[in-house]
Amino acid sequence: VDFSDMRQLREGKISLSYPSGYDDEARNLIDNLAKALPEFENYAGETTYDDIAIKLVPNESVLGGYCGDAHTAFTQDNKDAVNVSITCASGNTPFHELCHLSEKPFDYPSWFSEGQAENCGAIKLMALLGRPDEIKQADEYRINSSRLAAPLPSLGEWIPAEETNESDDTTTKGYGLSYALFKEILPFVDMPEFYTKARADFSGYQYQLPNDAIICKMNEVAKSNIIPTFERYGFKIEPCSKKTYYFLEGAIYVYRFETWSE
Question: pLDDT digit string (tens) for 212-226?
Answer without folding.
Answer: 999 999 999 999 999
